[in-house]
Task: structure prediction
Amino acid sequence: MYQDKIPQNSSNRNAHEIDYKIFGEEMQFVEIELDPEEGVVAEAGTFMMMDDQIKMNTILGDGSNQDKGILGKIFSAGKRILTGESLFMTVFTNAGFGKKQISFASPYPGKIIPIDLTEFGGKFICQKDAFLCAAKGVSIGVEFSKKLGRGLFGGEGFIMQKLEGDGLGFIHAGGTMAKKVLLPGEVLKVDTGCIVGFTQDVTYDIEFVGGIKNTVFGGEGLFFASLKGPGTVYVQSLPFSRLAGRVLAMAPRTGKGTRGEGSVLGGIGDLLDGDNRF
Result:
């Protein structure tokens, strides 16, 4: 059964109403059902499969301001460069007569999170590479940090992404996702790379770990992210940067196809096998 997110004042909404299903456990994909003329906008490289009669259209920006002229389109698209994304996005529209399905896949092991912007006051802030896809009409923009310390040491830099509007968006978290609802004044300390996103009322800052031993030998970095409620925070257990770092650390540095994993002898076993290239 498809899950549907429709606010009570749906007649006044700007974004398209879409239904969806999320499949899988560790490598998930989301299947979106589109009525005729409904559309979904997606980040490049997330498309998986679609029914016939769904049309693709590459556009500048996110498609939320296509009626504002060429300057509005260029300005919207230009902001995406600051988040490291492409100038262009792809809109998929059901050009047929019946319901059609289209699917988008997560880029690495983790969870796909549906974000109903009507539940969060029309705005949600997330890390730069978290966005997967959204109903057409949702604005995908940038959120600038107003604090120097957060921008320099916060892991996400001065710029994060923001989703705005009254529709449904989908973001991706690495590993297992934790959702924390903070009360007014309640503080949650998080590794800077583990933040997926948070609602607009959450105060985000960074905090020095403190202590000579913690700083030099702790291995957890110099700063925590400090998130103060009220609001909702999404945290991931495996940031892509951490996953990539572990893979890089284990990668062979001499062109060999293996590092002797699972062998008691390890590197000595390579010598006995005749593979003594160091």
